[in-house]
Fold these 2 entries.
Entry 1:
Amino acid sequence: MTEHTENPAVSKMKGAINHFTASLSGVHVTKDLALPIISSVRGRAAKALTRYLKLNNIEEINDTYNIPIEKYARFKRHVKRVAAFQVALVQLPRSLVVSIVSSYDVFLGDILRAAFYLKPEMLNGTERILTFKELVEFGNIDDARAYIIEKEIESVIRSSHIQQFEWMENKFVMPLRSGLDSWKHFVEATQRRNLFVHCDGIVSAQYIELCAKHGVEVGETSVGDMLHVDEAYLQAVWECVYEVGVKLAHVIWRKLSPSSLAESEKHLIDNAIELLEEKQYSLLAKILPFFVFDVKKHSSEANRRILLVNYCISLKFSGNSEEMEKVLAREDFTACDARFHLAEAVLNDHFEKAAKIMIEIGANNPKIPRHAYESWPLFREFRKSSEFGLAFKTLFGEDFKIEKAAGIVAAVDAVDATAQHVVEPAESGEEIEPEATATDTETSTPDE
């Protein structure tokens, strides 16, 4: 029996994709945790300021306050806290857009490095010249090759994101933007990132020009306007860059290493399951159609159907059941093994039929082991049904139980606690103030 040794270049490609998706997942976690906390704390700080003004009978007249000198220092601290949290609400989403694009930039370098190792002959056309002294210092051809690869990547990364795609299309002799509906959004996001980094978000003529050239609707936005980031835009940029990156990596991987097509599809399937587990349904619904319907070759019909089932799950749980039904209706599952019949029944909410197929499949089928019934996103709603419970008990001899992860609950509680206690940081002997209540208002002294 021979042990399979993975191609090091394939490992580099896998590692690049894994690092990219993990980096973007981290950004998304930051968004989901930090923004609600800052928003909550900003609201509490504003309430604390209002309470201070009321207790000290300070009124606003024509946007100004008449503050007694002895109360001014405390008033100023309240105002600065509100202002600081407001700035944070503006700056954090901007910073996250910059982080998302930066993650892509690192990722691009990684996949280009993997591409050169997958197909070293691509270096044959390079015009880079090494001096005799440099060749002597390298000592061997592998070191010289690595040096040239890094120089090639460096020159690509320094160009604009649009120029990078043009270079790749020429280098890999393939269209990368054809049919990529998210391209215009990718262009806008990378250009907006540049404005945040270099111009404090102030719109430039170049931004307007490039957006128009690539079909981006900017509405009434004009030179000199300041761009911001709301939560919907941040999610859209996150999905766009994730989609572009994953599609780009797999298209290059498939092109340069046809012999590892099965590994590419396996990696894509694993990534799809992770996104389903994270409930990123709309993102997955944008990624998978290309690999199900548009690519001309699959390593196996089974892999194509697994991708199709995952696509249907993303449609169903993103509220597009009508499109899911159309996709399933066009697919002939007649000659497929039982797991696909089970998937079709579950997706169509035919739970009684699905339960019968479960029992037919049995408890020891390696293609659908017990943990699949317990955790696969496909069975999310099916698991809640009485039909599933009876079939599960028939197969495994015990009731099915859904247990919440104590760690997740504890994390949520910690976030709530943080939002409750961050407003009034203790300073020079002061105690942290809780949020005002009716009782507090009656018993508080004015100079609080």
Entry 2:
Amino acid sequence: MHSLGISHAYRGSKRLNNRDKLTDSLACFAIIPPLKMGVFSTMQLDVKTIFFLTGLLVSTTGVVLWGLSLTGRFERWLKYWGISNLCAGAGILLLTFRHLVPDFYSIVVANMLTITGYFLLMVTIRRIYHHEVVWRPHLILLVSVGIFFTILQDSSQFYAERAAIGAIVCGFYCALVCRTTLAIARDEDISSAYLVTGIFAISSLIFLVRAIAAATNQLGGPTVFAPGGINMWMMIIAAIVAPLWNMAMLLMIMERINRNWIGRALRDPLTSALNRAGLNAAMENNALRRRADNHSLTALLLVDIDHFKQVNDRLGHAIGDQVLRTFADMVNQQLRGSDLFARHGGDEFVIILPGSGEKQGYEVAERLQKAFAHATMKIRSAETYPTLSIGIAVCPSEQLPHSLQHIMEQADAALYQSKHQGRNRITSVLAA
């Protein structure tokens, strides 16, 4: 009987153990509150770790970029980029020492370093785009924010106010970066600039959501590292996205440099007009065909500067080079963005006007003659009188990429007529 009681007791205990295991299994699927809070408690340490590693990575990147800028082989934007990473990384690192160092350092200094990093990142992008920065309003903004954080530096209160202001300012600079990189992508046809724009657009959105959450007391805790709540997840996402900025910006800069070198190989160094290789490349990649969509005709102008040899012989080659540059600048001001302009050799240039017939080509030629006469007024004399002789050929737009040489010969014949008739004239291939 005694052994039977032990056996019943053992089986009862086993059933209880099995039921407990089943309850634990169901609890895993149901994610009961105690388990949920345990996960978030673990995540608190992970957030600080992610922030610390992010700050360390960004700071190290800043040191490398700043060190490269000291070699003097790069433009000034690299120095701004390096200092922006140093400031942002140092600010993030100081943030992880909250309650371990005085509030002035972990709140005021940490936040201002981070915000300054965002500001200098905006300066970097503007410098890359060759746009100047108006410093005074930004410095006033930074000083005002610094005073605000100094007044509200008590870590036991004002967390929501600090979070809202910091998110608004950082989001503002992310939006400015986004606008500039989008302009780079569109104006310079840099594909990776769209990636940078997307990353900073996401960052701006994150800061906007955080500012709204702070204004509505929905951050989820009294500190930046409080477990749970929307703030914790936004800060984790922000810490993950931040290192992507540098990688995306590096891709954009590399693509831009590569395009610049290709552009230099395809352009005349004196006038910045396309050279023959550049003109052929424009034909081969069908760029002209895309520009002439929905237009049946394209006009080709062959332009020669009259008496250019006399300008070189009497006034010197420096003045001759100046005349060529003046002509190129004048042409770029007169033409549309869809037109092509190339130096064919010496003082002879090619202008291609997609979607233009003989009449439009003649009108452009007349404008060029008048503008050139005005631009060279200072060097004119009885012995040196540079003018423009122009030959015009017109053909169907879809035929030009395949018959460029033939159209050039027709325009050259028209140019010869202009020269033969006394120079400073315009002749179309139809009238030749």
